[in-house]
Amino acid sequence: MTGVELPSPDRTPTIRDVAELAGVATSTVSRALSNPDRVNRMTRERIQQVAAQLKYVPSSQARGLSSGRTQAIAVLVPDITNPFYFDITRGTQHQLKAAGYTQLLVDTEESAEMEGEALHKMRRSADGFILAASRLTDVQLAESAAAHPIVTINRASANAPTVVIDTPTAIVQSLEHLASLGHSKVCFVGGPASSWSNAKRWKSFEDETRERGMTTFRVGPFAPKTTSGAAAADAAAHTGATACIVFNDLLAIGMLQRLRERGVRVPEDMSILGCDDIFGADFCNPPLSTIASPIEQAGRVAVSMLLAQLNPLQGGPTRRLAVMPTHLTIRGSTGPVRVP
Questions:
Q1: Which of 40, 68, 157, 176 has its CA 20 to 30 A from that of 195?
Q2: pTM (2 decimals)?
Q3: Are 271 and 335 in contact (CB under 8 A)?
Q4: Which residues are 275's β-sheet partners?
Q5: Hey, is 150 helix, strand or coil?
Q6: Burial label, 97 (beta-carbon count in 10 A; 0-12, 13-18, 19+)
Q7: Cβ-defined contacts of 203-210 (< 8 Å, 24+)
Q8: How far, in Å, CA of 127 to CA of 96, rounded?
Q9: More confident residue, 36 or 229
């Protein structure tokens, strides 16, 4: 990027200026800002840095003034205090900013009613919507997708493009891990009844444990918060299971605290395995074994899929499904089954 002259302060930067300073073609700049998953990471980040340095505004933002578009995207999440959604919204924010859009963040408080109201009230203030872990029914989601450009995260739909974090596959890995430690009595600690991902994880758990001949228990549903951990721990301890796979890390962390109060040792008496690998999961006592996933990248991909709907000529064909891989992270909360 050396030796390239910056545009004068009194001239509006163009896409050609960004391309020249970044040392790439203008078509690469266009893809990096509107459909970033089609550009390799190092090139994409270099382009985004140059665009920010030049204060470049994509032409789509200027066109929005005359087309009636707001150049704003609404991101709806069930619980803004959950660190899982920190990473989702960080990814969407960075990608939207690079493309010249403003992010409008809405906390729907785990309520399908609030989610539906937000979609209705913001129909004129947002060009499109990203719904993370939507609590809407299939019918409600279909109606919303027919009325607005929408992309969902962790909520598959036949009517809207979807980014799915593949936790069901990691559930199988988790059960393999627990089986290798000698556990044959395992408990699934469920999340919200309206959660699509909770149903998928239970199905994977149920199928795999049946195939392995494990004794299984299911408790819940529980709100995916640390405050629900006490009730979840009491219910799980009552089953006689020696290991639990928990809907999310917040619930698992709450369980660790309650089990310690009850004198149940983790992992000596009961192993606990969470999901999401949120910030702080490795600071627990003991550190939490969990299912890790590229959460921030899921937010970025969702933005690229939505921008492809809004600007099909610029973004190319709209992807209908993106599956994000996951993996098991083993820490101190899982260990060998206790031998009587």
A1: 176
A2: 0.77
A3: yes
A4: 291
A5: strand
A6: middle
A7: 203/168, 204/168, 204/169, 204/171, 204/172, 205/171, 205/175, 205/245, 208/171, 208/172, 208/175, 209/175
A8: 12
A9: 229
* Domains of the chain, earliest start first: 15-56 (no CATH), 68-164+294-324 (3.40.50.2300), 167-293 (3.40.50.2300)
Distance CA 198, CA 184 (A): 22
Question: Cα 284–186–238 angle (5° rounding)?
Answer: 80
At 6-63, the pLDDT tens digits run 666 666 778 888 888 888 888 888 778 766 777 888 888 888 888 888 877 665 554 4
CA distances from 6 to 19, 44, 52, 227 (A): 12, 20, 13, 54
Which residues in the chain belong to E strands, given as ranges?
Answer: 72-77, 102-107, 128-132, 150-153, 162-165, 185-189, 215-219, 243-246, 271-276, 289-292, 321-324, 327-329
- Half-sphere exposure for 322 (CA within 13 Å, toward CB): 23
Token reading at 209: 């444990």
In angstroms, the CA 45 to CA 279 distance is: 24
Per the model's pLDDT, the better-predicted residue between 10 and 121 turns out to be 121
